[in-house]
Amino acid sequence: MINRVEKLSLLSEMIAFAKYDKEINDVEYGFLLGVAKQLGISRSDFDYLIEHPVTYVHLKSHSERIVQFHRLVLLMNIDQGNQDNSVGIIKLYNFGLRMGLSHESITKVLYLMESFPNKIVPPDVLIDIFKTQYN
């Protein structure tokens, strides 16, 4: 299980990712707030993170890094108004590398993402991709 510092770091990273193209819109805010609640972070702490990011903490658990990558994939694709996702894809790829995920797995997820409805890769498919590369 991840600790509070790691949870705040995850949220801060997701907020930074959501801000890559502009301010956080209502749909992104709602998604991020849902993740905060899932992680046990209060709304006031979440709102504070929006203006005051915390330092990145590298997750030790490979499975937690995969879950975080999946959250970022979901976050990137909830804003359907953004048709040109090339900057988002590059940013997502770099976030995945920084987390220590294999570039082959990241590339495969980004490639397969195009074939799924709303570009949302199902969790079991994503896990299989990373499991294959991890072994």
From TrEMBL:
Taxonomy, superkingdom: Bacteria
InterPro entries given in the database record: TerB-like (IPR029024)
Name of the molecule in the record: Tellurite resistance protein TerB
Organism annotation: Seonamhaeicola aphaedonensis
Lineage: Bacteria, Pseudomonadati, Bacteroidota, Flavobacteriia, Flavobacteriales
